[in-house]
Amino acid sequence: MTAHTPPTPPFRDPSLPFAKRIDDLLSRLTLDEKTAFLHQFAPAVDRLGVDAFRTGQEALHGVAWMGPATVFPQAVGLGATWNTDLVRRVGEAVSKEVRALRAHDDRVGLNVWAPTVNLLRHPLWGRNEEGYSEDPKLTSAIATAYTRGLRGDHPTYWRTAPVLKHWLAHNNETDRATSSSSVRPRVLHEYDMRAFRETVEAGAVAGVMPAYNLVNGRPNHVSPYLREHLRAWTEEELLVCSDAGAPSNLVDHEHYFDTHEEATAASLRAGVDSFTDHGTDSSQMIGRLKRAHERGLLTEADIDTAVRRQLSVRFRLGEFDPDHDPHADAKDFDTPAHRELAREAAEQAIVLLKNDGTLPLARDSRIAVVGLLADECKLDWYSGTLIHRSTPLEGLYERFGAERVEFAEGVDRVLLRTGEGTFLHVPAADGAADEARGAEGALDPALLAGRTDLPPLTTDPAGTEFALIDWGEGTLTLRAPDGRYLSVAEDGFLRASADQPGGWVVQETFRLEPHGDGHLLRHVGTGRHVSVSADGVKVADENPETFELIVVERGEDAVTRVTAEADVVLVVAGNDPHIHGRETEDRTTLRLPAHQERLLRAARAANPNTVLALVSAYPYAVDTTALPAVLWTAHGGQAAGTALARVLAGDVSPAGRLPQTWYADDADLPDLLDYDVIGGRQTYLYFEGTPLFPFGHGLSYASFSYGDLATRVEDGTLHVSFTVTNTGDREADEVAQVYARAADPALPRPRRQLLAHRRVALAPGARAELAFEVPLHALEFWDVARGDWRLEPGPYDILAGASSEDVRLRTTMSLDGEPGAPRAVLARGLDAADFDEQSGIEIVDRTKTEGDAVTAVPGLAGELLYRACDFGTGAAEVTVTVAGEGTVELSVDGGPVLAELTASGSGGPYDYTALGATLTVEGVRDLRVGLRGPLRLAHVGFSG
């Protein structure tokens, strides 16, 4: 008798289209099973042979949080390469390592949460390190390259499924879960959405993650923009994954909904398909979804839509076709090619900001290397664990020889004496720390963080001399002679147990607070003071110890000692990515920490031939007048030191370019929460001051000439070509940049706008002809008068050169477009948010589900300007749609108030009423609307 073999279900049939297979699998799942899929950790369905699935694997510049992996430069450093081919190869390497790790650890997810495409609008944003550029065109070009590398080249199956972060207008950590970004329509379309749109349209994006903040008064996790814009940009199903904890924030912090069931249902209906909340415990979110369904807030069809999007990603990843998945047997991990790529990326990310001929260094130079970052290879929150590492000092030892390099870190060496006359002391670790050292000799932070098996600090008559590292604003770290940082574990005791400061809550930072004749030592992570007790040194709520700080050697003195006789001094300054500028913490200033400025002055005073290398996740405002040479690089990953040494030695000519404006002073910056890049004249697009270094800036050891500029328009495309010639004596890369500007705009337009770029390698004397094709819609702006894109006709300057300010070639050409027309206010009225100019105004949500309104900033008189309103032969009545209490004043052309309408304030913020008044106005006029009081204005209408 022949055994019956059950037929293969259609969802297992690789010959069928994914859509049919998804339909089949969806039909076999129960409502409970489908609902369970909506948490980040979706369980297996054993009866169907469906595996568990996890959304979310951090992979910003290498595989993160899963142990050792190749660590590439930070994202802002990859942006500084201006090299899309390189970044695509980095994405490819990262995705191969994701697959290789996945083969041995099923915790590793194939749905990667990268890249971050938030624009670097404000340089004080704590997460500056995670973005690529302040410019939407450059950001989308780099992001597209990275997602293509992450996706892979197979036409059907993806190596990993990238999710873009963080939708939308997210540039502040301060109050990030409750603050609202007020984004006018022009900024929304021309700036914040553009980087997302062009990356999604390129076709290698699997999904998007909404940001914690609100936009125009509405949380991103319930934004109608997900439906109205994001999903309209592609025919592919996009998986929208919530940010961690954000679903609960809708009720717990934002108080936007009264119940979690309402919030969860609203998120799902808006387009969130996977809920990241309560860690691996899915019961809370699944319970909310079930109760929302039971109460009629959700339908099964709503749940099916979200599950379908998730399954679409899973099918594309080859989960249901293991025999056909070309990536299933990936083994590429920490390969020689990946190590070489990490070095290449680190080299290409280095930007030469200034050079009077001091660089490159002669091979026989005697070099003094000083600074807090000189012997560091820093990681950030989204780094993997280093397998290999290279600090600037190590790189210089390797390249120039240890006998030609002197080193002084420049930190203060201190003893801490107690009131009893004893000193803080680090007892011997009895070999415990050695057990945590890997093959490279570095302490593994994953093993050391929070360790309690090491002995706590004690006191003794001699004490331990600590390196006191001042990171600015009163924050310091203390390091023992063996390189371990003082850290506080869960039991409250101080131990020398951390390789580096790190963690979500950093446990290695302290503050010295003057107290009597000494200082209290406050631990930042717990907020408690250090006390000394019989069982060891710990943090406690009582009995704080008063310490006398004894400086054994000042950092400046150590710097002076090693720099005076050197041929050149290299000061390596910058930031620790876990301190003062990181996720959850914005910076407060562009200035270098005061201690590092003192070290720079000391080095310069001892030896005028002082070169500054800034290693940082963001720009600084530094006086470079007296410095012969200055370089900048983001934290460059595992090969950072080798890369810097090779550039300093001239083995590689630097060709990185700044991906954002470096401002000269804090006074040049807008408020952190001012998202109006047009009105606030922000970024290189609109900034009218003199930057310290402009967007796109970067020098070379070679020189380049530009020529033969030619432009033409054909079939809706602007064609630009020119030649670049290496007129120097060494091979080098040049980054040629093409910009445009409307020469005679009728409304504020960018001073110049990046259209295209190319990084090209040229031998001495070599010439390359570069040709670019730019769709004319790249020059369109969002016309608020018509609610759509429009190309303004008239003259446009086409600029080619080496930076946004270093323009080598230019021409002016006239473009045909569509002339502007007055606003047809009698037919359509005015949506309040479609203003041309404003002061004292913020945009808020018209309802919880759709639309915008405007309101005056508390304490200010709000003013709105709507240009060229066509009242025809005459308007006799105005109607305003308002909620809340206050007065609306209308005037035209700067004249007297023509109508004044007052709302009583009955009802809530979404209870709108229509108020009417008579007026007399005709012709095309500029309408001014004043808001007095806390009312919301949604619409202004007119009738004859």
UniProtKB/TrEMBL annotation:
Pfam families: CBM_6, Fn3-like, Glyco_hydro_3, Glyco_hydro_3_C. The keyword Transmembrane does not apply. GO terms for biological process: arabinan catabolic process; xylan catabolic process. Keywords: Hydrolase, Signal. The keyword Oxidoreductase does not apply. Gene3D superfamilies: 2.60.120.380, Galactose-binding domain-like, Glycoside hydrolase family 3 C-terminal domain, Glycoside hydrolase, family 3, N-terminal domain, Immunoglobulins. One of its GO terms (molecular function) is xylan 1,4-beta-xylosidase activity. Catalyzes the hydrolysis of a non-reducing terminal alpha-L-arabinopyranosidic linkage in ginsenoside Rb2 (alpha-L-arabinopyranosyl-(1->6)-alpha-D-glucopyranosyl) to release alpha-D-glucopyranosyl (Rd). It is not able to hydrolyze alpha-L-arabinofuranosyl-(1->6)-alpha-D-glucopyranosyl (Rc). Belongs to the glycosyl hydrolase 3 family. This is Exo-alpha-(1->6)-L-arabinopyranosidase.
